[in-house]
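Quick note —
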Amino acid sequence: MSEKNQKSAMERLREIVEFMEEKDLSEVCVEEDGIKLQVKRGFTALSPQTPQQVGISAQNGAVGLEIIRATMPGTFYNSPSPDDPPFVKVGDEVHAGDILCIIEAMKLFNPIEAEFDCYIVEILVENSRPVEYDQPLFKVRRK
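Predicted structure written out below.
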């Protein structure tokens, strides 16, 4: 599959997930161009220590903290390769556009970037663990 086709496939997958959210669907099956895709959401993450639930939202009981969530299901990586240092650590100051982690989905490595300047308060997922769509990844405090 060419890089252009892979990007197109990821865009289509994002459209399907957004449609599922709009219609509050837990499962959808789509067949296009001979490819059958079944997408499910709302299932418990495989890692028992991580909370469930994209984007950013206020954390209950944690005044001033916000959550950065997974924008897709896949495998969470905190560094570009096993030999490299992590993108961020607890206490780090990050700026809008900085890469926080990578989620590998469908053999593509998708960077998750900070949407605003903030401090990393807590990393909620261990390296190389599977994550679900909308699962909390980081607790952050805006600058």
